[in-house]
Write a structure and sequence with these properties.
Length: about 210
């Protein structure tokens, strides 16, 4: 399901302002890391802006970018350019300073708490670490922030986005040299398959009560 159409739909939703808080943060990082995706977002922005200008009941104001920014005097000396602005770091701080939660050996996560129905988190996998064969009851969005991982469908590097649904079963494996750090959204719980599936699914079920 990792198709261009799915990615474009996600980007268009961001440009139109129809996404929730979690997916908006997710897509903003995708655009920050992926220049091709950022160009598509710019095209969608222009199309939507043209449509807005054609509305008879709306009178757009001519504003400069300075009119849309409200900075205190002590922030003015530390203004970052748009190209340097990292939306995730601005939200949760430097990733190196996070208190990661160990799920199992070589696999850590950090839950980003937002007021949204979608669950968004950071995943950190040590070199060579794998996730058992699994699928999802809803869509799963994975964005590589650092390093890379591979599965049955290909290799994903920094700035790459993978979108999966319940039809996709995969076994992600972190790069054997650098590992990987990913930003992930899951619309529903993971469903495991294989030898230890019953135990893993029971653990997932119990874990859902403590979100």
């Amino acid at each position: 399901m990792n198709t261009t159409a799915q990615k474009n739909e996600l980007i268009f939703g961001y440009s139109s302002g129809s996404l929730g808080e979690a997916k908006s943060l997710f897509v903003s990082m995708y655009l920050f890391l992926n220049s091709v995706a950022a160009k598509k977002a710019s095209i969608f922005d222009n199309i939507l802006a043209d449509n807005l200008a054609e509305l008879k009941d709306v009178a757009p104001k001519k504003l400069s970018y300075k009119d849309c920014i409200n900075l205190s005097s002590n922030q003015n000396s530390n203004i970052e350019s748009v190209n340097d602005f990292n939306p995730l770091v601005s939200r949760i701080g430097n990733l190196k300073n996070l208190k990661w939660k160990s799920v199992y050996k070589g696999f850590k996560e950090f839950i980003i708490k937002l007021h949204d129905k979608d669950s968004i988190k950071l995943i950190k996998m040590d070199p060579g670490t794998s996730v058992p064969l699994h699928s999802h009851n809803g869509k799963e969005y994975i964005l590589v922030l650092e390093g890379s991982f591979c599965d049955e469908y290909g290799e994903y590097n920094k700035g790459d986005l993978q979108i999966n649904d319940q039809k996709i079963k995969h076994t992600p494996i972190a790069n054997k040299t650098n590992g990987c750090v990913c930003l992930s959204i899951t619309e529903n719980e993971v469903v495991f398959f294989g030898k230890f599936a019953s135990i893993l699914n029971l653990f997932t079920f119990i874990k859902s009560f403590f979100k």
